[in-house]
Amino acid sequence: MIAPRAASVMPGTAPAPTAQDRAARGELLLLAAGVLAFGVAAYALGQSNNWDLRNYHWYDGWAWLHGRGLRDLAAAQSQTWFNPLLPALLYALLSSLKPALGTFVLGAVQGLNLLPLQRIARRLLPADRPWLAFAVAVVGATGATQRGELGATFGDTLVSLPLLCALALLLAPQPSRRRIAAAGALLGLAVGLKLTAAPIAAGIGLAGLIACARGADARRACLALCGAALLVVLLVQGPWMWQLWRDFHNPLFPQFGPLFGGDFVAPDGLRDTRWMPRTALDWLFYPLCWASAPRRVSELWFLDLRVPLAYVALLALPLWWRRARAQAAQPQALALLLMAFAASYLLWLALFGYYRYLAVVEMLAPLVFCLAALTLPRRSGLIAAAGLLVVVGLATREPRWGRLKTYGESYVSATLPALAQQPDALVVFGDREPLGFLAPTFPDDARFVRVLGNIIGPPLPRWALDDAVRQRILAHQGPLLLLAVHTDDDVLREVLQQHGLELQPQTCARIDSNLFTAREVRPLLCELRRQVAVH
Predict the structure, then answer these.
(1) CA–CA separation, 362 vs 369, rounded Å?
(2) What is the C-alpha to C-alpha distance for residues 428 and 456, in angstroms, rounded to an integer?
(3) Cis before residue 254, ω within 30 degrees of 0?
(4) What percent of the chain lies above the pLDDT cut of 70?
(5) How far are the Cα atoms of 76, 123, 375, 469, 493 from residue 500, in angstroms, in the given order?
(6) According to the model, what pLDDT value does residue 330 have?
(7) What is the dihedral of CA 245, 76, 294, 267, to 10 degrees?
(8) Which of these, 9, 138, 336, 528, could form a disulfide with 480 (CB 3.0-4.6 Å)?
(9) Cα(250)–Cα(271) distance, rounded to whole angstroms?
């Protein structure tokens, strides 16, 4: 009997792709299409026009890229002293592209969250149902936070990328020290870019440390994770912290002044505690509280059941943990995910309670409640998981942070009156309105200070920043201008008098900008005159 000849591959030809290769390629194409869909959705929603963009996103990026340093004081209120690296990247992108294209690109970048979410879901969900992992990733990446911020200048769904990638690396079976160090570096990058990512990064890092501590090379793995995270935080955040230390003797200025001392210790009340839990029931069941009263954790109304459902699943963990562990291909990965989810939520609850900062937990929540649902017997688990995903996706309503109805030629533009063109002018911000975005539209030699805002002026007591602004005004030799929406205000008149200034109302002229809506009162630019006697 003659043995059959083995199939051979002709020289110079590639082997035929296997079914597994075709499936992987199909998944990749589907994910790429999803990322592009996020860009298209961002474009359809319109250009961002939110309070933070107007107050500090645009100003901070411009000021850092143009080396403003201490040329200005509190132009963007307390947010002037946030790390400007992420705003600078956004400013560079959006000022160099047409607004429509910039919005599309930003939305597509935010859509990249699909990739680590799908990888995480594939590690934990049944291998024979890749469609479920993709569905979990899509529902995770389309929560209220992501929808509200899509194509917008917020950083929450941008720093989520390194956080999710770090978690995906740690979930690998027996991750190498190189993978662990890379995860630490990604966690450090997220914190360096945006300090509000710290509780989520710490939660993921803590879960990673617990998982690493069980390995044979536990000490080196823990050192790799922590060392890489600390090193990258210092590289990304360190130069800015050093500048704040040099200028104000506080690397986290204006927060934590009593801890560092020095002259610039801000008064109490700068920390925003509006969103923190108030009662014992709040602390125990906060996700269930905001499910029915979302303005407990946000300025704007929204509806998102992802975190509340995942929280209920965690409360019921004793009922489904054993079965989930028995079903899991990687029980250690399941434990790490749940620890990271719970620790991140608890640290966020203790520090902020503000919903936008919970973006990563919102993205992971569908995976958590699907894992719980899949422990139900037979096909009922799969039906329950799919049903929950559909209901959650359809029920979601995002907060509306502000969009422009049409795209213009420039992301930010303004029409200034003639008095703005005076050389060497000192422009004084005179209310709490978010007008920092107007600073880049003034002549390059203009300088900016603030006498009223969320960090200076009544109702806050007088402190060192008031004195620094006063000295800046006294020392200035050029024209003095007031920029404010509300100029006929007793508090403003009193504050101007304290700084030796008097408003000249007959000189006031309106400023217009593409960011102002039709019904919005335009700010005024007015001349200021020095009083004869300074009190």
Answers:
(1) 11
(2) 12
(3) yes
(4) 94
(5) 23, 66, 71, 12, 10
(6) 87
(7) 50
(8) 528
(9) 16
Which class for 238: exposed (0-12), middle (13-18), buried (19 or more C-beta within 10 A)? Answer: middle
C-alpha angle with apex 417: 411 to 422, nearest 5 degrees? Answer: 105
Global pTM value: 0.93
315-318-319 Cα angle (round to 5): 95
480-484/524-530 β-pairing:
antiparallel
Q: Are 463 and 267 in contact (CB under 8 A)?
A: yes
Structure tokens given for 114: 């699909």
Structure tokens at 280: 């014992």
For residue 84, report the phi and psi dihedrals to the nearest 5 degrees: -85, 0
Closest by Cα among 293, 310, 377, 303 to 136: 310
Instruction: Give the confidence band of 5 by pLDDT, cuts at 50, 70, 90.
Output: low
**Measuring CA to CA, which residue among 444, 434, 417, 445 is closest to residue 508?**
417
What is the distance between the alpha carbons of residues 460 and 254, in angstroms, rounded to a whole number? 14
Q: Given a cut of 60, is residue 3 above it in pLDDT? A: no
Q: Which residue has the higher pLDDT, 348 or 24?
A: 348
Q: Is the pLDDT assigned to residue 23 strictly greater than 90?
A: no
What is the longest distance spanned by two Cα atoms in the chain? 117
CB atoms within 10 A of CB 517: 9
pLDDT tens digits for range 301-342: 999 999 999 999 999 999 999 999 998 888 999 999 999 999
pLDDT, one tens digit per residue, over 199-231 is 999 999 999 999 887 766 888 999 999 999 999
The set of long-range contacts for 268-276, using a CB threshold of 8 Å and a minimum separation of 24, is 269/460, 270/78, 270/454, 270/455, 272/354, 275/352, 275/353, 275/354, 275/355, 276/352, 276/353
Range 182-199 average pLDDT: 98
Cβ neighbours of residue 62 closer than 8 Å, sequence gap 6 or more: 68, 91, 95, 439, 440
Residue 290 tokens, joined: 């905001």
Q: What is the CA radius of gyration of the chain?
A: 27
